[in-house]
Amino acid sequence: MKNPTTFENQKVLVLGLAKSGESAARLLSQLGAIVTVNDGKPFEENQAAQGLLEDGIKVICGSHPTELLDEDFALMVKNPGIPYTNPMVERALEKEIPILTEVELAYLVSEAPIIGITGSNGKTTTTTMIAEVLNAGGQVAHLSGNIGFPASGVAQKATKNDTLVMELSSFQLMGIDDFKPHIAVITNLMPTHLDYHGDFDSYVTAKWQLQKNMTEEDYLILNFNQDTAKYLAAQTQATIVPFSTEEKVNGAYLLDGVLYFQDEPIMSATAVGVPGLHNVENALATIAVAKLTGIDNETIKEILMHFGGVKHRLQYVGEVQEVKFFNDSKSTNILATQKALSGFDNEKVILIAGGLDRGNDFDELVPDLKGLKHMVILGESTPRMVEAAEAAGVPFVTATDIADATCQAFELATSGDTVLLSPANASWDMYANFEVRGDVFLETFAQLKETVL
């Protein structure tokens, strides 16, 4: 890794731990910074903080005292989930302390070139697709960033001959300065995380940070199905490579059921291993990256044909008595569930939906629910989800939890049907996160398979 001297003897405050905060604190300490970590979780319950203290890093836990910023800090490295309205962050801004996120540190120490992927939906799937294709093509690609592997940790181990394939959230991109990927992808831009950003324009501005340092020698891959992307394409120095399922473009596109890159046929759209037109878009973005990095067509086709999805994101789980099971627990909003349903024949789908009640009405989901064979509804949002099922004319039952819902869905299914967990709601009414919710679905599937077979 590179060893910048920027941080030597500089006082740095790391605000918020989790995986990325711990990784950032350790890296900064290694680079000679005088590091203080501040995390809201009490010290006695905070294993990460305890480990940092054992290694000689100062930790302050249990609260966020703004007076801490009266110390002469040169920099704050903020956990991306902490909003800029947080009193600690506001105080840092008042004192004109620069605020970065951990991906900026990753860029500063990385010898490896970076492929950065962001977007409202599909970024995890696309990031994973790209890494698998590159690795199959003989390159060494490392998953990193928002996908669950702290970028600053992965960057330390990657060599100049490797590639960092980095999933990036809008929260992370708000805290970059010099960060520059060689290839960047924006899968799509939809109105999400508006509770954090305030409005769609601010959200787009955060996402657009991805290209701020790119030059004409770098490549920016944009979804030309969207007018927003076409508008933004004129606002960058990067070389634009578009993809589209709706028109022929000078990049990757769908035409007569075939996926192309610049007039070169790559594979049939129906051969992509995960269902849905949105996954065709993800495949097109992947093809663009693969072709730009020299991967041959046969490798691209082979990996995309056998791509099984990402865990909890329209993940194909398997079959029991010719009933297919898909785990889409990561669909925590209406848009994600709409996209999931678009890949199936509703008449053969038993949908498991419901969860945390955020006060949403599900009117906009009703057209997508029409024709479903059945729904199994659970969670705090049950009354609202029931209203949507009734409006769509879909029969439904209610369940006590995911295990119960999975068993009921299987009982309602016949050969050729699909049980789809795609909740359109967050999990926190019953489960710590969508991963735990999805794991319960996977465990129940395994029990059903063992019992029935």
From TrEMBL:
Q: Which residues bind ATP?
A: G119, S120, N121, G122, K123, T124, T125
Location in or out of the cell: Cytoplasm
Q: Which residues form the Mur ligase central domain?
A: 117-290
Q: Which reaction does it catalyse?
A: UDP-N-acetyl-alpha-D-muramoyl-L-alanine + D-glutamate + ATP = UDP-N-acetyl-alpha-D-muramoyl-L-alanyl-D-glutamate + ADP + phosphate + H(+)
Which family does the record assign?
Belongs to the MurCDEF family.
Q: Which HAMAP family match?
A: MurD (MF_00639)
Descriptive protein name: UDP-N-acetylmuramoylalanine--D-glutamate ligase
